[in-house]
From TrEMBL:
Domain spans labelled D-isomer specific 2-hydroxyacid dehydrogenase catalytic: 7-322
Pfam annotation, one family: 2-Hacid_dh_C
Keywords: NAD, Oxidoreductase
The protein's name in its UniProt record: D-glycerate dehydrogenase
Upper classification of the organism: Bacteria, Pseudomonadati, Pseudomonadota, Betaproteobacteria, Burkholderiales
Length: 326
């Protein structure tokens, strides 16, 4: 047997990245894209030194205990709420994520979802395909204005900032944001964005865009009370994580037209979708594809691979999410 480190690739990824990893490691890949249970994942990880994960494999105490040889988990996602970071640190397991490479692509998608939602593109397409279009009508699928409106961004990290620039420079929008910490003045000026309280943002934004990471504290950042604060004409876009929005409360607000529309790329308990969301017309639903272009998905897997390579070459991880004691 070779003395190369042994790694597992937990889901199918771009073949060129598998090939690159094969030059450095003894690789077990999963190009058939089997979705393993946590127990099956632990089984597949026996004897492996590292693993390349997507954001869907939970790395917790149970798994770490079952896989004592594991040294590093490289997520090909910027979000890493699938990691129990303290448990990984306690077990001496390095975690890495995949920031930056997906920023612009994800911001493009946030904007696409905003446009589709505000301008009712999916709803009107279904109407046309169903053969219901008989004539022009002055308010047929009349939607909400995007240009010149107020964009409220909750979560002003790299992706939030890229969305702010699209709104401010491309669409002449007034951009307000709320974030754990305020950006410095130069960055605010570059994004043409003003810091406001969450309450002020919800009350004034025509379009509310969620781009914050999921943490237990952020669960249901948008629930019944927050939806009630929004304008009845407003749209809500979630490209962040399921669970940041209370999906049941949102479906109710949409049905009662307490807000105009929503665009959701992520869901509580995905890939399951709250059944009530499937029956309301004023919501655009996409299957967690904000970073899904061929180039970006390859770059995300490539960065996860670079993290594994750098780590096992003793150069340290490139984009660590935890600091291990030496
Ligand atoms: C995708 O959701 C990511 O976190 O990269």
């Amino acid at each position: 047997m070779s003395n190369k480190p042994r790694i597992l690739i937990a889901r199918a990824i771009s073949p060129e990245v598998v090939q690159r990893l094969q030059q450095h490691f003894e690789v077990q890949s999963n190009q058939d894209d089997v979705v393993w249970t946590p127990e099956e994942l632990a089984q597949q990880l026996q004897g492996k030194d590292g693993v390349l994960t997507t954001g869907s494999q939970r790395i917790d105490t149970q798994l770490l205990t079952a896989c004592p040889q594991l040294r590093i988990v490289a997520n090909m996602a910027v979000g890493y709420n699938n990691f129990d970071v303290p448990a990984m640190t306690a077990a001496g397991v390095q975690g890495t994520n995949a920031p930056d490479v997906l920023t612009e692509t994800t911001a493009d998608f946030g904007f696409a979802l905003l446009m589709a939602t505000a301008r009712r593109i999916c709803e009107s397409e279904h109407y046309l395909r169903a053969g219901l279009w008989k004539d022009w009508h002055y308010d047929l699928f009349a939607g909400a204005e995007v240009h010149g409106s107020t964009l409220g961004i909750i979560g002003m990290g790299r992706i939030g900032q890229a969305i702010a620039k699209r709104g401010a420079y491309g669409f002449g929008m007034k951009v307000v944001y709320h974030n754990r910490s305020r950006l410095d003045a130069a960055l605010e000026a570059e994004c043409k964005a003003s810091y406001v309280s969450k309450e002020e943002l919800l009350k004034t934004a025509d379009h509310v865009m969620l781009v914050l990471p999921f943490t237990p504290e952020n669960r249901h950042t948008i629930g019944e009370a927050e939806l009630a604060q929004m304008k009845p004409t407003a749209t809500l876009i979630n490209i962040a994580r399921g669970g940041i929005v209370d999906d049941a409360a949102l479906a109710k607000a949409l049905r009662e037209q307490r807000i105009a529309a929503a665009g959701l790329d992520v869901f509580e308990g995905e890939p399951a979708v709250h059944p009530d969301l499937l029956t309301v017309p004023n919501v655009v639903l996409t299957p967690h594809i904000a970073s899904a272009t061929k180039g970006t998905r390859t770059a995300m897997a490539g960065l996860a691979a670079d993290n594994l390579i750098s780590y096992f070459e003793g150069k340290g991880p490139l984009t660590p999410v935890n600091q291990l004691a030496r």
